[in-house]
Amino acid sequence: MRIATYGRPGAGKSTFTGMLAEQFGRRGVPVVRIKLGAPLYDLQSLVYQVAGRPLVSADRQDGQLLNALGSHLRRINPAALTDTFEAKVKAATEENPDAVILCDDARAADVDALDALGFKFIQVWAPDDFRRLRKAQRGDLTPGDENHPTEAEITITPHYRIENAGSVQALLVRAEELVDGFVL
Fold first, then answer.
1. Domains recognised in the chain with CATH numbers
2. Is the pLDDT of residue 184 over 60?
3. HSE-up of residue 75 (Cα within 13 Å, Cβ side)
4. Which residues have C-beta within 8 Å of that of residue 23, sequence separation ≥ 6?
């Protein structure tokens, strides 16, 4: 099983995907999380090192830099991220064929490649005021531009739509329900 979550910045994609991973694990189902954008974070770290300001934490985001890197990488080779991702999915599947593969950073430009790999899509949606507040609280080095082409909305019909407008507990209940449906 392969699952890709998508949604606007700050909607709770990574949080919800982490909950899915935990719930699958509680049911004895192995999980592998693979970030499609991992090469962008590697490049971000390298840029900060070259600039003489190494990142203290690898999970800090310079949204403006990531937007630019994503655009330029896709300009040079539109399949650069998806080819690397596909190789990681193949390796993870060969190593553990029973594992659920989770991706929490699907982008519009990558939907066709993820679909070809057999991913089910889960949209994580949150009201704009709620997700903007969450995004502001993440402590990004710089915020990404929500109107940047790398942040274009995915317009497919998802297999599942999760509304994240309440508490973390409510989101966890949705993850439990979804995993129960998959496992049963």
1. 2-183 (3.40.50.300)
2. no
3. 8
4. 175, 176, 178, 179
